[in-house]
């Protein structure tokens, strides 16, 4: 009747013996299974590199065929176009002023009899009857001074970003100087209606303020002079509407327009020295009063955006004196004033290669840091830049968590809301830290209480070039600032060769054939271009989805060719592409810098008729 213990904690159990209950047995079996499976090679590790080599071979063949097709299209456009068209296009590309550009463009339109095309409202690219009705409704409301009808008509027109298709780029791709007259008249009517609404709101607000001021004073009989001034004052717009009702209606209308029409952002891409072309675009928009308040920049575009967003309009236009400002910092938007500060790529190519073998990057950090501080006006923060100029600066970069930038890679959008005290110059450094060219950097911030400069993040977090994942941050800008229309200036050397509009683009119609509905170089070549480009992008996306692309310099390259590099409208220029790409890492001379500047201005002049339709309306609205 005595129970016998089968075992205790000190005596080992026999595997498989009756009554064995050792807790170590399942763990030992699991360890043995893990050991066995660890000796079995994973299918991904076995097939990864063969698939990678096959994909690289496919991409190489596709790219060779693609650029051969592009060369044939370019040759067809050059050789088959009339000589007058070639000369006029050359004059436009080399124009030193907008007047010279416009004269050459008008001559081309006249030679192609585009006045008849503009006068004819019908087109498959927009709803002409709907646009004509909206134009007539706004004009009628302004003529009759009908306040409710005017607001309703404007609301209908601003309920979409591209109402009735009037901002469709194909509408502007048949003429060198504009689009249909109906679109021009519609745009003028909308701007006129918004201007009238603003004038009415300002007049009623002034009257309400005057009434409130008089009410706060001691009651007294009105003097004869005051009665005389009141009688002589011009009638305010919509005088039959009470101030409170008009202001309430205007407030509701503005809230509606902010949600539906949204704001415009200027997005400046990266591209090394090719990013100096951004200055020409900014110059054209600023001098016409069309520069958006929201500007984003990546890599080289971040440097240009920092220069613009850290200076007021008066400083950029040369209308303000320095008032004790540091003479190290150029202020005017002028190529001869900015060029001396453009020294950021030090050394000869032999010295750069030696620096690469020693430090893992081609360029030392110190010249780039000095350059970034000069353009960002020292230790200016995002919040200080916004308070000083009213412009919203956004800079993109990639966060590389871990030691030496190894780890998780996360795209970031830096601005005065998310990183108010971060130094703009350090953000420019991080956004421009392209692997192999410049090692990853760390963000610095200014203490809001003491002004001391310190690291933004205590963890070992580095930041690399924003072009890798986040070149044109349209979605981030829409979420943060209600941006619904983005103007992308795309000069990246790995993107520009693939920017191809088969039917022409705004301000740059097809010039090799006189037939309507034409294709650049013919349908067959355009079809081959499209198929080969999509094959390349699909192959790159598949390499990313299958995790075939290796981590290079601690960075993932899945989105380098697969992200969206376009905006609502994209400004780009592939003229002299090879020369531009070869000089993208050279410090520009005065002549070279003026060349970059002119190329940017030509890009803006080309699509100015399209940009004006959006930006003039936004300026009248906000």
Automatic annotation (TrEMBL):
Keywords: Hydrolase, Lipid degradation, Lipid metabolism, Membrane, Transmembrane, Transmembrane helix. Coiled coil: none annotated. The keyword rRNA-binding does not apply. The keyword Transmembrane applies. A motif (GXSXG) lies at residues 297-301. PROSITE patterns: PNPLA (PS51635). Residues 1-26 are annotated as: Disordered. It holds the Pfam family Patatin. GO terms for biological process: lipid catabolic process. The chain crosses the membrane at residues 49-69. Residues 266-478 form the PNPLA domain. InterPro entries: Acyl_Trfase/lysoPLipase, NTE, PNPLA_dom, Triacylglycerol_lipase_N. It comes from the Eukaryota. The active site is at 299 (nucleophile), 465 (proton acceptor). One of its GO terms (molecular function) is triacylglycerol lipase activity. Belongs to the PLPL family. This is PNPLA domain-containing protein.
């Amino acid at each position: 009747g005595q129970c016998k213990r089968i075992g205790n904690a000190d005596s080992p159990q026999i595997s498989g013996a009756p009554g064995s209950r050792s807790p170590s047995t399942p763990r030992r079996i699991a360890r043995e299974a893990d050991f066995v499976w660890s000796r079995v090679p994973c299918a991904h590790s076995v097939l990864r590199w063969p698939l990678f080599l096959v994909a690289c071979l496919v991409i190489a063949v596709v790219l060779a065929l693609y650029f051969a097709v592009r060369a044939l299209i370019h040759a067809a456009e050059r050789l088959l176009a009339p000589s007058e068209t070639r000369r006029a296009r050359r004059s436009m590309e080399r124009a030193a002023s907008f007047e010279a550009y416009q004269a050459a463009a008008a001559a081309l339109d006249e030679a192609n009899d585009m006045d008849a095309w503009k006068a004819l409202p019908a087109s498959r690219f927009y709803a002409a009857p709907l646009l004509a009705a909206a134009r007539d409704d706004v004009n009628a409301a302004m003529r009759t001074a009908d306040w409710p009808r005017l607001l309703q008509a404007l609301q209908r027109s601003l309920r979409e970003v591209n109402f009735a298709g009037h901002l469709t780029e194909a509408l502007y791709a048949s003429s060198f100087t504009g689009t249909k007259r109906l679109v021009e008249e519609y745009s003028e009517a909308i701007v006129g209606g918004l201007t009238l609404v603003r004038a009415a709101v300002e007049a009623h607000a002034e009257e309400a303020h005057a009434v409130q001021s008089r009410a706060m004073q001691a009651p007294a009989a009105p003097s004869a002079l005051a009665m005389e001034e009141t009688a002589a004052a011009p009638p305010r717009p919509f005088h039959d509407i009470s101030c409170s009702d008009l202001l309430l209606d205007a407030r509701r209308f503005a809230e509606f327009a902010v949600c539906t029409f949204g704001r415009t952002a200027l997005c400046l891409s990266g591209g090394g020295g090719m990013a100096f072309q951004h200055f020409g675009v900014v110059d054209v928009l600023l001098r016409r009063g069309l520069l958006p308040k929201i500007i984003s920049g990546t890599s080289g575009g971040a440097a240009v955006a920092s220069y613009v967003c850290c200076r007021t309009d008066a400083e950029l236009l040369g209308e303000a004196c320095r008032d004790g400002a540091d003479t190290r910092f150029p202020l005017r938007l002028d190529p001869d004033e900015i060029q001396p500060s453009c020294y950021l790529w030090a050394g000869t190519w032999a010295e750069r290669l030696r620096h690469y073998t020693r430090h893992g990057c081609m360029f030392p950090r110190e010249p780039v840091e000095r350059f970034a501080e000069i353009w960002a006006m020292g230790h200016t923060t995002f919040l200080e830049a916004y308070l000083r100029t009213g412009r919203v600066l956004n800079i993109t970069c990639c966060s590389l968590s871990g030691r030496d930038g190894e780890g998780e890679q996360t795209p970031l959008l830096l601005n005065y809301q998310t990183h108010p005290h971060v130094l703009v110059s350090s953000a420019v450094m991080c956004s421009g830290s392209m692997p192999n060219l410049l090692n990853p950097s760390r963000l610095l911030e200014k203490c809001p209480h003491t002004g001391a400069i310190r690291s933004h993040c205590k963890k070992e977090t580095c930041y690399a070039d924003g072009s890798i994942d986040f070149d044109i941050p349209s979605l981030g800008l829409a979420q943060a600032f209600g941006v619904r229309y983005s103007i992308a200036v795309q000069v990246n050397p790995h993107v520009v060769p693939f920017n191809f509009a088969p039917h022409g683009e705004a301000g740059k119609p097809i010039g090799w054939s006189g037939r309507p509905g034409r294709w650049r170089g013919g349908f067959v070549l355009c079809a081959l271009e499209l198929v080969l480009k999509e094959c390349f992008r699909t192959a790159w996306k598949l390499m990313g989805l299958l995790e075939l692309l290796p981590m290079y310099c601690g960075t993932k390259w899945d989105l380098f060719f697969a992200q969206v590099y376009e905006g609502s409208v994209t400004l780009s220029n592939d003229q002299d592409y090879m020369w531009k790409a070869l000089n993208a890492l050279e410090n520009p001379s005065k002549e070279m810098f003026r060349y970059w500047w002119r190329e940017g201005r030509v890009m803006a002049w080309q699509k100015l008729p399209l940009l004006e339709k959006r930006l003039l309306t936004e300026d009248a609205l906000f």
